[in-house]
Amino acid sequence: MKNVLALELRKAFRNRSFLAVVLIGCVLSLLSAWMCLLQYGQDTYYFQLEADSGYLSNPMLEVESFYTYWIVMDSFTLFSSLLFYLLPLFATLPYAWSYCQERNRAYERNLVVRCGRYRYYFGKYIAAFLSGGLAVVLPVLLNILVMAMFLPARTPQVDYTIYYGVSYGDLFSAVFYTYPALYVLLRVLLIFLFGGLLAVFGMSVAYFTRNRVAVLVTPFFCCVALQVLGQALYSYMADSALLSPINFLGQSGDFSRPLWPALLEGGILLAGTLLLTWMRGRKHEIY
């Protein structure tokens, strides 16, 4: 298993698709950081002018913080929204297509004969998961690094909830106002996990079709469908507005971000893709 996994990881991280997706994501991440830093500079400048003139008694320093402007909380720019909207595609483009390609070229048969069914399929599964997760989380980590270089990490104050967009019942809101660094870590981990799960979802589509385009776009269209469904059900159930990972992984505007959609959809994706991969290794006829 170790040799198979090492081979798959080399193929996953040493291909142009992975590098291209990470590069595009990093460009969007840096543009988001640049625009947010400009916004921060403008806000602090006017706060200082008002404070010097005696018109401002509360400069709200806690609001002007890293925790308000990093990419997950960025509601100021288009680039953050674009990054999270394209996240399902960024997750599948690096390596989710690999199994489909090897199946079409009959390369699957050679590897299954040499290393065994389960080693091949689960090696491919792990490589797809890691490549998808890293492809979407590396731009976020870059944004965190850049923003932390220029902005103070002031502890958020519950009095300014409307400025942070983290209210009671939101994702990990219990730790945001006490351990904000842990909150950032949890949000980054959630992005990594869903990037990986969407990648293996795309790979699982290849069990039913040989069309590479279908493998790449099916997770994206499923996320868009969940987004549309959530908006249609919003008048009946407010939490449904954020059914789609496109919404609950990033900034959601005025909507709250409950934890249950992430737990439910993450559990379904994990259990479903593992079961399909196990069945593929057990029953699939390669000849």
Short description:
70% of the residues lie in helices and 0% in strands. The protein is an all-alpha fold and 287 residues long.
Describe this structure in words.
By secondary structure, the protein is mainly α. Helix 2 packs parallel to helix 8, helix 11 crosses helix 12 and helix 11 packs parallel to helix 14. It is built from 14 helices and no strands. The chain starts with a helix and ends with a helix.
In terms of DSSP E residues, the strand content is under 5%
Average pLDDT metric: 85
**Sheet with the most strands, sense and barrel status:** none
Whole-angstrom Rg: 21 Å
Write down how many β-strands occur, each being a DSSP E stretch of 2 or more residues. Answer: 0
Question: How widely separated are the two ends?
Answer: 23 Å
Assign the structural class, choosing from mainly alpha, mainly beta, alpha/beta, alpha+beta, or little secondary structure.
Answer: mainly alpha
Helix content: over 70%
Q: What would the principal axes of the Cα set say about the shape?
A: elongated
Number of helices: 14
**Helix-strand topology string:** HHHHHHHHHHHHHH
Question: Topology, pairings included?
Answer:
Blueprint: H1 2-13, H2 16-53, H3 66-69, H4 78-85, H5 87-92, H6 98-104, H7 107-115, H8 117-150, H9 161-164, H10 173-176, H11 180-205, H12 212-232, H13 245-248, H14 260-283
